[in-house]
Amino acid sequence: MERKLFCEISPFTYQISLKKEILLRKARDLLSGERIAKDRVFEPLPYLAKSHTSLLLRRLHGVDMALQENKVTNIRLACGRINGIVIHPGEVFSFWRTLGPATAKNGYKEGLVISSGTLTSGPGGGLCQMANLIHWLVLNSPWKVTELHHHSDALFPDERRRVPFGTGTSVLYNNIDYRFQNLTGQDVQILVWVENGELCGELRSERPFSYRYKLVEENHHFKKEGDDFYRISKVYRLVIDRLSHYTVRKELILDNHSKVLYDQSLIPPEQIREDE
């Protein structure tokens, strides 16, 4: 019989392990010397580098819409903490250091939570959408991502997807964080708000960046391996000179090989490839 980890023995031991990880993260932050961004300015910086919107209410297969509706409340609360954050040169943005604990005490409702590939619910559920939007803005900038945790599985079929598959990030207070560093030599700013049923975001800076960025997904398909299907693709980032429009670099940022955990009958047949 395989021996259980301490955190797997019971819900009580899981909470003990979680609190331990929270304390360890705080200790590492104290010792790291990183300067965490904390200033907020609500007047937009002059240059709009990138904007993006994402639909808040999506019908996800097998998910109670009440959890989606609660997510909207959670996203609004998060906007109130993140909107206007300015990251000065050399500073690091931390999702959880900016947001704080997403607890019922702080007004967060039960939303969809993904834990070890399993769908469940918990206070603050749905905040991955905020982290995903911020990461998309960062992918369209020269900022340096310093902490990123990808979802490893394909949990839902596409519904009005606007970005390449797999370009999101997982977050869990506070040991699974999302962080990036501003190495551009100028102040940069993130604006986020909710409008017309969408989460809206802008990346702003004092001056234009030398390059613009474009993300493309190539060779997307599904493949059966044993009894399971996998979603396969490669995501590249094109770095384009703003003046000449010449692509100076093509960077592989993601090599997707994600197990499909939803109903296999929902996979579009035309996207399935047989073994070559």
Distance between the termini: 39 Å
Poorly predicted spans: none
Strand arrangement, largest sheet?
Answer: 7-13-12-11-14
Main β sheet profile: 5 strands, mixed
Describe this structure in words.
The protein has 276 residues and is α+β, with helices and mostly antiparallel strands. The chain has a domain at 34-209. The chain is 21% helix and 35% strand. It has helices spanning 11-32, 65-82, 95-99, 128-139; strands at residues 47-55, 85-87, 92-94, 110-115, 118-123, 144-147, 153-154, 179-181, 188-195, 198-205, 211-225, 228-241, 247-260, 272-273. The strands form four sheets. It has a five-stranded mixed sheet with strand order 7-13-12-11-14, with no helix packed on it. It has a four-stranded antiparallel sheet with strand order 1-10-9-2. A three-stranded antiparallel sheet has the order 3-8-6. A hairpin with a 2-residue loop joins strand 11 (211-225) and strand 12. The protein is globular and about 50 Å long. The relative contact order is 0.16.
Could you give the topology of this structure?
Elements: H1 11-32, E1 47-55, H2 65-82, E2 85-87, E3 92-94, H3 95-99, E4 110-115, E5 118-123, H4 128-139, E6 144-147, E7 153-154, E8 179-181, E9 188-195, E10 198-205, E11 211-225, E12 228-241, E13 247-260, E14 272-273
Short summary:
Helices cover 21% and strands 35% of the residues.
Index terms:
276 residues, alpha+beta, five-stranded mixed beta sheet, four-stranded antiparallel beta sheet, 21% helix
